[in-house]
Amino acid sequence: MNLQIRILTTLLALLGCALPASAQTGKFTPHSVDLFEVLPVQDGGRIKPVSTFADFTLLRLSGRKSVTRGDDAKTHLRSTEWLMEQAFFPELAVDEPVFLVSDAAALDAIGLAHVDKKKRDRYTFRELEPGLNALFAKANEYSHIEPKERNSVQTQIVNLAEAVQIYDSLSGHLDLALVPAPQPEPKDAEWLTPEEVALRLTAPMFRDKLTEGQKQVAAGFSALQQRRDDPGAFENQLAAVSGQSIAMAQARGEYGKIPLERFYYRGQFLFYGQIVFILAFLFMAFSWMAPKAKLPYRGAALFATAGTALVITAIVIRCIIRNRPPVSTLYETVLFITGVSTLVALVAERITRQRLALSAAAVLGMVGVFIANGYESLDKKDTMPSLVAVLDTNFWLATHVTAITVGYSAGMLAAVLGSFYLIAKAFGFRRDQRTFYSGLGRMVYGVLCFGVIFSTVGTILGGIWANDSWGRFWGWDPKENGALLIVLSQLVILHARMGGYLKEHGVCAAAAAGGMVVAFSWFGVNLLGVGLHSYGFTSGIHNALWTYYGVQGGIVLLGTYGWWRERLRAAIKAEARGEMPSHSSGGTRDGGAAGGATI
Amino acid sequence: MKGILKGILDFFSSLGLSSALLILLALLTYLGTIDQVDHGLFEAQKKYFESMVVWQQVGPLVVPLPGAYLVMVLLCVNLVLGGLVRIRKGWATVGVIVTHCGIILMMIAGLVKFKYCKEGHVTLYEGQAKSEFESYYDWELVVLEPTERGTVIEHPIEPTAVEHSKGDKGRTFDDPTLPFALQVTHYMRNCQMMPKGPMFSVDVPVVDGAFLREMPLEKETEQNVPGVYVTAIGRDGSRTDGIVWGGSNAPLRANLAGKAFGLDLRRQKFPMPFEVRLDKFTKEDHPRMAMAKVFSSDVTVRESNSTRAVKISMNEPLRDKGLVLYQASWGPSNARPGERLFSTLAVVSNPSDQWPLWSCLVIAVGLLTHFTRKLVRHVRLEGKKS
User: Fold this and answer.
1) Any CB–CB contact under 8 A between B44 and chain A?
2) Of A109, A358, B241, B263, which is the most buried if we count CB atoms within 10 A?
């Protein structure tokens, strides 16, 4: 396994060379920035490259992973370069616009002028400095209010004060756990910051516990400050200390995945995935407009496959880095659902070749990757966090979580296909092509069957896990109930279809409505803030979720209108022929008719 | 008559009823989930999932809905009649029948758990041993009778009986081995014992200058502290009043028929068939973080003459003699390094503990059989078409 990782990381490191080089500030050589990026640092309970730390710190402050300077050239700084500037040239860093203020009303509240700025804009530390006393006084006042109870200005003020504190902690010194723990200490031992090592050297009881390696690495990092004005000397010193640090980390077996993680983030698989899925969507749109042309269809198939491959590659790399099954966080559910639903859609397209499943793959891929990127920007936290104790089990993550997430994927795919059906019917698309609709209806049914297996088994497996960790199989906890709702909604559709209460149109409408059930289970219950699945709580997605409910509900209503219109047409035609309109009949398990109109 | 019976059978085995019940169950699940935000899990569970009827507020109206308990009973009947008895038997339906068998097994497991499960916890400091566990929610009233040998005989009154002792009359419990009968009144699920001042009046009895003040129910049910008024009625007709409150530090003491007795309202206790001693509690955080990575309790289990060491950790409980012990929590949460810690182990006695696992396997086999068969048929048909 280690050999495989080494081969993969070597290949990826080579590939990484092809990636864009860092922008130059003139203060550091490009090689210095590269060396700094792959330095191992302990943060958030794990060892990661400095580039990951820098990415998410900057994301937290400025809502981006790079800095765009306010100069005429609009120079871009990569996050690591910004971090280096912050540590070694704080007098320059004060002029970098890294503080995102979403609404200037927050600045009004602390009496800070913001002339020539937009309502949502980025500010430098120097610009904020006159208002810092008022900012911290207000933040202190608002911190006593429950986060849920704060208004938007209060929330922004508290967040901005936290951002300034983070900024300050990184200003002028390396407050990062860059000094590896010595070799005999257990796995997951604490690393130290260079300053902590310096402090321990002053206390005899701690001094003796430091190894020579730790002292040298700490001294090496401290010496960087003295060489800051000579880029060449700085690079040499950094090369020496990073060599020592990496050797110590390797000796502890904690360095192996650092280059891979740096490659993962620099590779921007999801960014490119989004572009590729948008292209797939556009080609698909052309394909519908020109059904006989082969190029748009082939282009859509190619891009959708490429997008799926990018998402799956991202998932696989994350699994290797984390040494975990594909899903262990809410963020990863988005990636996995996108990967699985697009893959299933591509397989369905391969079987049916009706362009419908391919369209669903393009839509789901585009939306899924957009949500993943949006979630990362909203959460502003490392997407590979350490897990709480109850989740520290690869067996249950691999079985229950994976199965239930596949169930979510199928539910979403069925909802998208069902929505296609309803929209097409409502707008009279290919009105006379019965096979088009029956094929789509069969596809929705097939995906629902696929989904019900995983939803049901995944939900029960969750109960068995709960029985092993919390002492009860079922506790009516919101997250459990959400999973049960998906199972029940899918069972209702399948039973009602079998009984003849739902026909093709009804199944598609119900599947489309099922998308809302999946969204409620996936994200909605996390907003409630109650239950044992507290590790999955989230916030800030309320509006997006309700927008989705609204859109999906609208599609179902549109579908109902389409059904009603079709029935009306059939009735008029029958009347014209002097016949009674036909009624579909509901059935029982033994084939008996239950009667009544069905959709 | 036959026609009526057939009609009833048709109704209870119909797919229409299945669909309607599944929709109702989904609706109740949704309502019960949302209700937890305001009323907590315990209350929502009682109202929606363990009831026969739910009175649901819809705007200004109160609408009756069947409770999930009733819905699940009907679903079980429907499943047996329609999904097992009347369903067409053949290769085409074998997967469905197997799945239905699995679901019935799971529902039976749920029923057995609901009726016969005992749940609670045992909290131990390092070095401490216990051979009983106590309930999270249920409170029992206990008469404590000291003996001449220095031991205490406990005369417990079941929690459900205590809970029904409401109002002025309440209930009277007569244990013939005691020299008095005990009338229990004014049961309050959550209350405080307070001194009665001269400036206000109360609508409950005042005993020795104190009374029980009813409080609103807590969202977290385990935080509710109940209380009752008691009257010991001697065999000679003498009456002694008292208040027993769950939040008291010590049992109520009373001299009855010339002998000292104690009365205590405490969380219900259950004996364990073995003794558990906590040897060491371990809590490991992720490095440089205040987030726990591992909780575990090293315990010694002693039964009869044998002892054995066991490690209980998250996701790895101890199963023995029909009981399962889980790592639940620990404390004190603000403990400083080196301070003595306690570990709380959740204890469950559930006869159907592993039945859901078997049902899951059966359901998985059934669903895979059924849908794989359908998929193969579908692919073959598509192949023929093309």
Assistant:
1) yes
2) A358
